């Protein structure tokens, strides 16, 4: 034994209670050659055992983590999966406690900085780009959100609906539009048959009974449509389109939207990352058409939605004392406008403007309408705890005057009651209602306003 070794062994025996204080003094090969009965080997044994246990615990924790996460992903996937064809959204079944908890939190997209582009997965097999247009309000632009075909169909359907508003019977000229939609009677039936049970319940027709703000089809109107449809469906197998089509054609436009918009709704959920229940229970799409000279003065969308003007589903919860607010606006451009028609945000990112803007040119930010593009913004700030805070004054916006051509847009307003308790109560009641009582109007074009 060398002097050096003796010194080191002495040091090893003179160890602290943990026994580890002397270990770094040894060379690795020397440590291995320690005698079994020495303090050194006992400390080693303890250290190795500790490491071993920590390792095992880590492995177990990792396995738990992987298991838990894959479960979450499955749940998310089934939640996010586009409702193919005629499937109803999952939210129709009563949610579990966990789902409810998740469904009442409000994630917010980060804007990062003006001009920042992030990829979003809205449809399978394709990524969309989402560009931050302003941070105040938090405003994004997504080119190509709707396809050309989708824009066309929404405009045609809205046109048909507009024409239908005066009467249910199809007039000359409307037939041409209806023919363009090219729907077979079976397709019409399918579109009506929301729950796909092969039968038409009255509530499936009632869902679309709102003609325009505050005006509903009468029970008599509905009975006529219902009778006409049954007759039509029966005769359609044997005869070609004939006179019987007529009462139906006016109605197609409401129904067809079921086919067109569930996907839009799904995309909005993916885009905003909001709980599906919330989007599902919000107002139906509203279509707006501006003729030349048409414009919309600067305003906030976040005004309350009162029962007289709220759509079917919001009527369930909204009453004069508990109005819902428009938390998010998603605005779709259905066509590119030949001249003017920009959506203006007069005070975006810079509160320099102190009067109601009448001149679009002076707005801080103007978005040019481009077919298929969607823009969306938050009308409310966050309260910092994941819930609705103050109304965002920067969300002031308007539609500039259309100088050439026509402008078509559609609004999807996502409604929320800023009162957390009321909102959660509302969601709980709505999602646990049986489907037949659940009034789902989330895919209905409700109105055409001409702003002039
Ligand atoms: O037409 C636009 O660009 C804006 C429309 C709008 O703000 C609205 O309909 O509330
Ligand atoms: Fe607006």
TrEMBL record:
Bilayer-crossing regions: 44-68
Biased composition (Basic and acidic residues): 87-101
InterPro entries listed in its UniProt record: EF_Hand_1_Ca_BS, Oxoglu/Fe-dep_dioxygenase_dom, P4HA-like, Pro_4_hyd_alph, Pro_4_hyd_alph_FE2OG_OXY
Domain Fe2OG dioxygenase: 281-416
Alphabetized UniProt keyword annotations: Dioxygenase, Iron, Membrane, Metal-binding, Oxidoreductase, Transmembrane, Transmembrane helix, Vitamin C
Matches recorded under SMART domains: P4Hc
Region (Disordered): 1-25, 74-101
Annotated protein name in UniProt: Prolyl 4-hydroxylase, transmembrane
Originating organism: Maylandia zebra (zebra mbuna)
